[in-house]
Amino acid sequence: MSTSLSPRILLVGAGAVGAIYGMVLARGGAKVAFRIRPKYRAELTGGMTLFRHTLFGAPKVERFTDYELFDSDEALSGRTFDQVWLCTSSTALSADWLKPLAKVTGDATFVLLQPGPEDFERLAALVARERIVRGYIPFISYQAPLEGQRLPEPGLGLAYLLPPGMTVPLSGPETRLAGVAEALEAGGVRTSEVADVGPLLATGAAVLMPLIAALELSDWSMKTLRRSKTFALALGAARESLDIATAQAGAARPLFLPFLRPACLAPLVALAPMAFPFDLEVYLRYHFTKVGDQTLAMLNQVQTEGLRQGKSTGELETLIDALVVSRNRV
Questions:
Q1: How does DSSP classify residue 159?
Q2: How many structural domains is the chain composed of?
Q3: pLDDT digit string (tens) for 242-263?
Q4: Among 171, 195, 219, where does a domain finish?
Q5: Alpha carbon distance 268, 225 (integer Å)
Q6: For residue 2, is it within any domain?
Q7: What angle is formed at CA 306 by the lines to CA 247 and CA 254, rounded to 5 degrees?
Q8: Which of 133, 164, 238, 271 has the fewest CB neighbours in a 10 Å radius?
Q9: Phi-psi region at 167: left, alpha or beta (left = phi > 0; alpha = psi -120 to 50)
Q10: pTM: predicted TM-score of the whole model, two decimal places
Q11: Strands 83-86 and 8-12
């Protein structure tokens, strides 16, 4: 297990998350490879075009070429990696590719970026817990251009925004965590070691998923959302989700819980689109439509856990039912 500045890192998925983490890791000197589906080999051969957003001005065009591609487990056979980063959706982890991947990657450290406790348990059934480091996705990235978006260079690519002062929290066994942190720090991304990133992830997802469901029900319009009864329903579901998620993680209830009310958050929802150098509503529609099955799965998981705990889940259930009905109409 290497902790040198040239670790061998395999990222599963070369999409909006994997490509950006891969670029950061390669910039720090890591030897980066992607495990991809065969159908993506042609478009990824020769490099990727990236558009780096800043808070002001036009995106900067970058090229990322320093990586290898593997499109089968057989191709990985005989290769050794220090780290394997799982850059997929939560629902993708339930597919049958994870088990053979775990077998062919030896003693590599697995970096889990998915938010749910179920994701950790699913991976821990295949990989020893002492080999798992949990992380976070603190940046925004997407396939570009978005609808109606103008970029400084024609063609397709990946756009991303690294928030100023971005820090990636990590948790896991010290010997494993050190190598992951070192690779990110070498690429210019700050990290912080926390005892357990799980409660942080659970808290964020507990608030975000109900709001995303409500935004979908509002046709991805923040103006419509904040003026609708769905906003209050979503915040009620978020309060239930937080109660459930913090109990499951053994964490204290967050101090902002009483402020999850329409009167408190409506101004933030109104101002949010102005804080981004791209159309936030178009981005949210694009991204969360693509991973819509994950949104619904996470809401269902929280409700199931709430019922197990004997907690109130009435507003969660109402929101889930409304989302299912809305999707069935399409």
A1: E
A2: 2
A3: 999 999 888 888 889 999 999 9
A4: 195
A5: 12
A6: no
A7: 35
A8: 164
A9: beta
A10: 0.91
A11: parallel
On whether both 241 and 159 belong to a single domain, the answer is no
Task: Write out the residue range of the structural domain in which residue 212 sits.
Answer: 199-329
Which ranges constitute the DSSP H helices of 5-114? 16-27, 41-44, 73-76, 98-104
Residue 294 lies in a domain: yes
CB burial readout 251-282, b (16+ within 10 A) else e = beebeeeeebebeebeeebeeebeeeebebbb
Q: Are strands 48-52 and 157-161 parallel, antiparallel or unpaired?
A: parallel
8 Å CB contact between 50 and 75: no
- Based on the domain organization, do 234 and 286 belong to the same domain? yes
Token duo for residue 183: 């690779």
Residue ending a domain, among 195, 214, 243, is: 195
Is 291 domain-assigned?
A: yes
Q: What is the sign of the dihedral through the CA atoms of 255, 258, 262 and 264?
A: negative
Q: How many CB atoms lie within 10 A of CB 192?
A: 12
Residue 128 DSSP SS3: coil
Closest by CA position to 204, among listed 242, 167, 261, 168: 242
Nearest-angstrom CA–CA distance, 114 and 90 = 6
The amino acid present at 179, given as its one-letter code, is G
- Give ∠ CA 164-175-20 in degrees, rounded to 5: 35
How distant, in Å, are the alpha carbons of 67, 125, 166, 305 from that of 119? Answer: 27, 10, 24, 14
C-alpha closest to that of 138 among 17, 39, 245, 51: 17
* Closest among 328, 231, 222 to 279, alpha carbons compared: 222
d(CA 110, CA 199): 19
For residue 172 the two structure tokens come to: 């896991």
Please name which of 204, 207, 212, 245 lies closest in space to residue 323, comparing C-alpha atoms: 212
Per-residue pLDDT tens digits for 176-227: 999 999 999 999 999 999 999 988 888 889 999 999 999 999 999 999 999 9
In a domain, 134, yes or no: yes
